[in-house]
Specification:
The complex is a heterodimer of chains A (about 130) and B (about 475). Helix content of chain A is about 40%, strand content about 20%. Chain A has about 130 residues and is an alpha/beta fold. Chain A has a single domain, classed as Rossmann fold (3-Layer(aba) Sandwich), CATH 3.40.50. A five-stranded parallel β-sheet of chain A has the order 2-1-3-4-5, with helices on both faces. In chain B, a hairpin with a 2-residue loop joins strand 4 and strand 5. In chain B, the strands form two sheets. In chain B, strands 2-4-5-7-6 form a five-stranded mixed β-sheet. Chain B has about 475 residues and is an alpha+beta fold. The chains are: A alpha/beta (about 130), B alpha+beta (about 475). Chains A and B meet through helix 1 and helix 5 of A and helix 4 and helix 5 of B.
């Protein structure tokens, strides 16, 4: 069984894509549509990795990550970001994020990184280009 | 008048300045003429009219003197002293006549100096001889004396006329001086009034022109601000639109990729692959538009780091190789540059790859693209050389413009939006570098990038090359 993945993403179209793609890799995917909901799910634990958007209603993804790290949570975090979002990499790295995926991302890149960080037996983990 | 307001006011200003200068010149000339006229009138009055009066007076006094000594002789008889006085007085009379002669009198009703002299001589010549017969021929003496007195009277009357004429002439000269000065004053006052009016007009026009200039400047500032606003709005729109397109593109491509992953050999695979490649192309276009829009508003965010060039070149070479091969071209690289630079590695790689992409895309199948990187002095020089069709001289200056395509139909067929070189230039210039193109039609094109290195670690041997 592949690890459970928590996807915290407010845009339902992207969330659906991530769920579909990751489920195809054999992961169980839990969706959270805003910051506070994501925080609650994350705190429940039991995830192999968190896929985290930055611009979220309620609480910013970077702040949420920092908050969980401060609480001692070491679940791998993959931050979804656009290149020109202000210093997301720096701030994300400081907040304890493990990887960054640029939007618009390649499906194969994303599942590759999830597989690398979360482990598990993904059906097909194409290497990223 | 149909002239625009500002032009009309300029004309008023110019006309006022010209009028003012003209008035000043006129006033000067008038003052000069007044001075000259006054002086000539005064000179004339002093030199002739007043002299005439004076010398007429002198003549009269001389005549009266002669008469005085004449009467002395008449009443007391001839004495040596009386005779000497009489002769002296006669000499003075002749001198006074000469003085009038020197003045050059030539007046109607007044005899000339020569006539006066003749009269004086007639008097003297008629009276002087009979003085000697005073005691001996009393009747001849008295007859000559009477004639002499009559002659003296005539002379005195003439002297009085000259004196009076001089007086009249001097008075007339002074009156004419007065008149001349009066006229001159009127003219001067008129000119000064004109000057004052011209100054007022000048001041008025000047104020209006300054006001107009200020209005123009304000209008220009407003226009510039509006233009800047419009440009910002345009760039904001492009940035926002590009940003907003990312999500649907992610969803589009991601879903097609998921579909392909689920069924990579199925009947839909080819369609899905096309969707993926088109979505990728559109993603690149959107990213490029976003980059250019941001570079216009100076918010292009370079993530510079101090880096060693060598590993960066290795990665660049392998990426360029893959890219060239995608277009069926062959890449030959010679990457010998060394040193450190303060650059955004990803953006710089993007710039060079845009050049390689462009070269490979426009060459014939199997064409050769050469990528070289060397250190020249304290600069990193990267060249992308192709043996493609080349670029005509007329097109060369414009190839770095956005959406500029030398061969539009061909470029479109090969999927070029005409942004690659514009992106390259934007990125290179944002790094403080230079980009130039040289080309020969039929022989190929060389695009050269030059970027500053961090001085200390460049290879000493290569400095010689740049020197």
């Amino acid at each position: 069984m592949s690890p459970r993945i928590l996807v915290i993403e407010d845009d339902p179209r992207v969330a659906d894509l991530l769920r579909r793609g990751l489920e195809f890799q054999g992961h169980e995917v839990i969706l959270a549509a805003d910051g506070p909901q994501g925080r609650d799910r994350w705190a429940e634990g039991g995830f192999g990795a968190i896929v985290l958007d930055v611009m979220l209603p309620g609480i910013n993804g970077i702040d949420l990550c920092a908050e969980r790290r401060a609480a001692g949570d070491l679940t791998p975090v993959i931050v979804l970001t656009a290149r020109d979002e202000d210093r997301v990499r720096e701030r994300g790295a400081a907040a304890g994020a493990d990887a960054f995926v640029l939007k618009p991302f390649k499906y194969s890149d994303l599942v590759g990184i999830v597989a690398r960080l979360a482990g598990g037996t993904g059906r097909r983990t194409e290497s990223s280009g | 008048m149909s002239l625009p307001r500002s032009q009309r006011q300029w004309r008023i200003l110019v006309a006022s300045v010209a009028g003012l200068l003209g008035a000043v010149a006129l006033a000067s000339v008038v003052s000069l003429l007044i001075t000259l006229n006054a002086r000539s009138v005064t000179d004339h009055a002093v030199r002739y009219d007043i002299e005439l009066e004076d010398r007429g007076d002198d003549l009269r006094v001389a005549v009266l003197d002669v008469r005085h000594y004449h009467r002395n002789i008449l009443f007391t008889g001839s004495s040596r002293m009386g005779l000497a006085d009489f002769e002296t007085a006669n000499g003075e009379l002749l001198a006074a006549i000469d003085a009038l002669g020197e003045l050059g009198i030539n007046e109607p009703g007044i005899p000339s100096a020569a006539d006066l002299r003749r009269m004086a001589e007639e008097y003297h010549d008629g009276f002087r001889p009979v003085i000697d017969v005073y005691g001996t021929d009393r009747s001849a003496f008295l007859a000559a004396s009477d004639t002499g007195i009559v002659r003296l009277k005539a002379l005195e009357s003439l002297a009085q006329d000259i004196d009076k004429l001089g007086e009249q002439r001097a008075a007339a000269a002074l009156t004419s001086l007065d008149a001349a000065t009066g006229t001159a004053t009127v003219v001067l006052v008129a000119v000064l009034a004109g000057l004052g009016l011209a100054s007022l007009a000048l001041g008025y026009a000047g104020l209006h022109v300054v006001g107009e200039l200020r209005r123009l400047a304000t209008a220009q500032e407003e226009a510039a601000a509006r233009l800047a606003d419009a440009l910002r709005a345009k760039n904001d729109f492009i940035a926002d639109a590009s940003h907003e397109l990312r999500t649907p593109l992610t969803v589009l491509r991601g879903n097609a990729e998921v579909g392909l992953a689920m069924d990579s050999d199925g009947p839909h695979a080819e369609a899905l692959r096309d969707i993926v490649s088109e979505a990728e192309r559109m993603t690149r276009l959107v990213e490029n538009l976003l980059l250019l829009a941001r570079s216009d508003t100076a918010s292009l965010d370079l993530e510079r780091e101090s880096m060693s060039i060598e590993p960066w070149l290795v990665e660049l070479g392998s990426r360029a190789d893959v890219l060239a091969r995608e277009w069926g071209a062959q890449l030959e690289s010679r990457l010998t540059a060394r040193g450190r630079a303060h650059l955004d590695p990803a953006r710089l790689q993007q710039a060079v790859l845009a050049l390689v992409d462009n070269a490979a895309k426009h060459g014939r199948a199997g064409c050769l693209v050469r990528l070289t990187a060397r250190t020249v002095g304290d600069r990193l020089v990267i060249e992308v050389v192709d043996d493609g069709p080349g670029i005509a001289e007329a097109d060369l200056p414009r190839i770095f413009d956005r959406f500029y395509r030398v061969d539009k139909a061909r470029a479109r067929a090969r999927g070029g939006a005409g942004l690659g070189l514009a992106i390259a230039r934007t990125l290179i210039e944002a790094h403080g570098g230079r980009i130039d193109a040289r080309s020969t039609v039929g022989r190929g094109t060389t695009i050269t990038i030059s970027l500053p290195l961090v001085g200390s670690e460049r290879e000493v041997a290569l400095e010689v090359v740049g020197a």
